[in-house]
Amino acid sequence: MTYTDMFDAFPQECYTPEQEALLSKIKLDVQQHFSDHQKRLIHIEGVALCARCMAHIYQADPFICECAGYLHDWDKYLEPDEMVDEAHRLDIDMGVNPYLVLPLLHGKISARKLQLRYPELPTEVFHAIDTHTTGETNPSSESAVVYIADLIEPSRPSYDSIEKIRSLVGEVDLNQLYLDAYKSTLLYLIETNKYVWPHSIEIFNALITNESSCN
Ligand SMILES: [Fe+2]
Ligand SMILES: [Fe+2]
């Protein structure tokens, strides 16, 4: 099963009526929340679809992956000061000046806020949202799938680095795919002279020394 095949292979899901109802509510909320950001909405729908299909390939939970896909970027558009204030209010400590890691904060802020908004969702959904920006040393299958889907969903441009990850879907195991996706994000930051969160290096070191595995 390849990246392109998987979208045809899993056209729709058999969720329980409760899951269907919750997912419909989430989709509606997300459409309203991002009504002024159509391009972001296309990205979000792409992540949800890609994560759901990848869940089948890698034996993850499709419902958790799809819900996290829809919600992962919820607080993406907070202004920098607002982002830092929210991180402070929610006790999110990145160990460095939060203005240096602004692009990482929305995952952690969204996870904490959405947990209150959707208490009926499994906690794994919020964990996947929390770590979709930072990655982690020992991701669950669902967190790994959402992290990778965020990078390779269909509306992302066909850069070589992204095409490489897409070509590996279904060809390598989830640990390997996660490591490759993580490495590609780190390389992008370095090549474009962006700040690298020090803990990202520790995560990378743990991933390459096989201290971690998706479970
Ligand atoms: Fe994000
Ligand atoms: Fe995203």
Q: What small molecules accompany the polymer chains?
A: fe (ii) ion
- What is the number of domains? 1
- Class inferred from helices and paired strands: mainly alpha
General shape = globular
Radius of gyration: 16 Å
Uncertain regions: pLDDT < 50 for 5+ in a row? none
CATH superfamily placement: Hypothetical protein af1432
Instruction: Please describe the biggest sheet, giving its number of strands, its sense, and whether it closes into a barrel.
Output: none
Task: Determine the CATH topology.
Answer: Hypothetical protein af1432
- Structure summary, number of beta strands: 0
User: Helicity range of the residues?
Assistant: 55-70%
Number of separate helices: 11
In the CATH scheme, the class would be Mainly Alpha
Distance between the termini: 21 Å
The CATH architecture would be Orthogonal Bundle
Task: Provide the residue-averaged pLDDT.
Answer: 95
Portion of residues in beta strands equals under 5%
Order of helices and strands: HHHHHHHHHHH
